[in-house]
Design brief:
Length: 121
């Protein structure tokens, strides 16, 4: 399965959503997960079929190329299926609900981060 993992960039987290549950993130993000303050920290093929397996892999033995902290609450896991369908799963306090998430607005790992600049909506 093609998997990407997104984590909040602490320097861009003006509303304190890092490590917060989905209800808090949506409250701070005007009803949505604010993808523009996330960074893609991993993308690759993993032998998984659900986000719980990704959680175990990213907390016990990181896959090669993984550049973030252990998978935690507020992180987003993307599955890209062979059909072209993409699903985004929010790592919540309990479980992985599917969320709307605009991966095109996230940063790629290692991109320059501007602080205090206007973010695209």
């Amino acid at each position: 399965m093609k998997v990407s993992i997104y984590q909040v960039v602490p320097e861009l987290d003006q509303k304190g959503i890092l490590f917060q549950n989905l209800a808090r993130v949506k409250e701070a993000g005007d009803g949505r997960v604010p993808s523009e303050i996330y960074e893609r920290i991993y993308s690759g093929e993993l032998p998984v079929t659900d986000p719980e397996q990704v959680f175990v892999m990213c907390n016990c033995e990181y896959p090669e190329g993984y550049k973030g902290h252990s998978l935690s609450v507020s992180d987003v896991v993307e599955f890209q299926y062979e059909t072209g369908e993409r699903k985004f799963f929010f790592c919540d306090s309990w479980g992985f609900p599917v969320v709307a998430f605009d991966a095109d607005k996230t940063m790629l790992q290692g991109q320059n981060k501007t602080i205090g600049g206007k973010q695209d909506e």
